[in-house]
Amino acid sequence: MQTTMSKPQSSGPEALTSEAERQIAAAWAGVKDHLPGPAPLTARREAAFRRFEAAGLPHRRVEEWKYTDLRALMRDAKPLAQPPGEIGTVRARAAGAVLAGVDVRRIVIADGVLLKEASDLADLEPGLSIGSLADALGSGDAEVTSRLGAQSPAEKDVAFALNTAFMGDGAVIRLAPGATVARPIHLVFCFTGPVPATVFTRSLVEVGAGATLTLVESHEGPDAFDYQVNTALDLVVGDGATVDHVKIGTEGSAALHVATLTAALGRDVTFRGMVFAIGGAAVRNQLFVRCDGAHTNLMLAGATLLKGRQHADATLVLDHAIGGCQSRELFKGVLDGDSRSVFQGKIVVRPDAQKTDGKMSSHALLLSETAEADHKPELEIFADDVVCGHGATAGALDEDLKFYLMARGIPRKEAETLLIQSFVGEAIDTVAHEGIREALSAAATRWLEARQ
Amino acid sequence: MSLLEIKNLQVSVEDDRQILRGVNLTVNPGEVHAIMGPNGSGKSTLAHVLSGKDGYAVTGGEVLLDGADLLAMEPDERAAAGLFLAFQYPMEIPGVATMTFLRTAMNAQRKKRGEAELSTPEFMKRVREEAAKLSIDPEMLRRPVNVGFSGGEKKRNEVLQMALLQPKLAVLDETDSGLDIDALKIAAEGVNRLRSPERGMIVITHYQRLLDHIVPDIVHVFFNGRIVRTGGKELAHELEAKGYADYEQEVAA
């Protein structure tokens, strides 16, 4: 256990060559003895950091990160965020306005800290418990520590490993078997400043067998402020449960945001996931989803709207470990200016996963000559009785459709807006909750109206 | 003043091939003109150029709608000025509900003309009334524009739009194509209801069949990019009997 200590701390392994990597190593050295959690977790943190140390930040020669070179994107690593002060807390209370008007239970996580006083923790529905990760780790909650991403292939991923190494706080939500929570839970993540910093948050959501939950995350921070977010959510869904997960990315214009979702789904689960990405300078959403039980029904959607020099990456690994499941993936990107979207979708069908039915599609709408869309669909099929397919398109707005609308008196810009709305609308429409769906549509409309 | 004046209109496509070779046509309020001609004669090009579709270069001539320079306007401005093109192949627009499309179009035109937007109840009332006249199922209006519609339903949807937008000049491009006789009758009845002393129409067709149902005042024979003959409605019957062979010989000579 102590062998790692024999390495000289100052020089570091050769993989850590960039400024950002050296700063991360220095931050680790300064903080590792103060991070919460029992001994087994400390060992896992250490092991996770070693993975980073051995590989460095992911870069373009790492296949999974080919189109999002994190080492190049991170010129430096900001210092670890401090808990929000008075002004930060005021800002945090106003965050999450993207869902204003929707009746949700708000859990506020500002600068990496769950703010109980700013969260709706009263009158929890029967079967529902909500706490902070810091409390769970501090009290040595063995169930929590054992569940945190332990079984996930995501552990190999260096960005996720860094999250495991540095994680301090986040939400821990448990829903008892059979419980139904109609009011969506909204995890309001925000960065409040006052100086650019790095925020690590980690949350765990366990949904018991037959339970029903709608979970929304929103992420935001000030514009023109180069803060860095590494956030992760582990989702464990019991047999027969129904879970809707919506992640709304509205980070500030200079932010770097890396998010990992790991989901382990039981049998007969209905899971609908939506990644809505509109903010941030560079964003990576990676989803590691595993179907561990039969007859699970999965819908994963994405809607991305980018302009300027924004970069957004959605990388999905869907692992069909057991057969008889159905999965649908629909990712849509609207790209203006010099922006770039990346979709990497990998569907793995293991030898035992017969009768898997998977369909994946990604579509990009290019509004400018200089925007770029990269699609990389992958099917790894080891079973012989499956139906799996994928499709990808990238193109400009259909001029004939635009002419048809204009010939009816609709001005050019309005015609374009209508067509773009209908393009992303197909993905947004997969969100089951009406209020959340309308909030996403409204956010897309605001983005379109701000064009040009 | 004439409603529409087309004077010596000359149009090429992007590879410099000339399609329209000096079209002259005057439509007065209340008149229904038919333009008949064989495939490739330039009839549909005329419709597209009038409505402002990209991909055509006007190399000569002018077009006035109510005295205004039509060719200087964007397609949406032409629509607001009172021009309506019923498409030969109406577009399918996935994700845009027909109702949203109709309301956006009506209000965009009203806005451009300085009129107030229609209230929701007023809009719904008009759509329901006009749809009922065309035997359009209200369920169809909730579906995306033309998606999954039959050929007949698409053409009825065009006539519905025309009825709601109340244009000064309607150009019907091969409205009969792809329709069986029943669908044709419904569409034609819809068009006939819109005939009025203030409104002009240009009915473009290959066959005389449509003109049994929308009886024109004036018939033009379109050949090789221009109008080569003009007559009364009996001209349509003559063309049906004799075809366009005579004109081919004239051009060859």
Automatic annotation (TrEMBL), chain B:
<keyword id="KW-0067">ATP-binding</keyword>
<dbReference type="InterPro" id="IPR017871">
    <property type="entry name" value="ABC_transporter-like_CS"/>
</dbReference>
<dbReference type="InterPro" id="IPR010230">
    <property type="entry name" value="FeS-cluster_ATPase_SufC"/>
</dbReference>
<dbReference type="InterPro" id="IPR003439">
    <property type="entry name" value="ABC_transporter-like_ATP-bd"/>
</dbReference>
<dbReference type="GO" id="GO:0016887">
    <property type="term" value="F:ATP hydrolysis activity"/>
</dbReference>
<dbReference type="Pfam" id="PF00005">
    <property type="entry name" value="ABC_tran"/>
</dbReference>
<comment type="similarity">
    <text>Belongs to the ABC transporter superfamily. Ycf16 family.</text>
</comment>
<dbReference type="InterPro" id="IPR003593">
    <property type="entry name" value="AAA+_ATPase"/>
</dbReference>
<dbReference type="GO" id="GO:0005524">
    <property type="term" value="F:ATP binding"/>
</dbReference>
<feature type="domain" description="ABC transporter">
    <location>
        <begin position="4"/>
        <end position="249"/>
    </location>
</feature>
<dbReference type="InterPro" id="IPR027417">
    <property type="entry name" value="P-loop_NTPase"/>
</dbReference>
<keyword id="KW-0547">Nucleotide-binding</keyword>
<protein>
    <submittedName>
        <fullName>Fe-S cluster assembly ATPase SufC</fullName>
    </submittedName>
</protein>
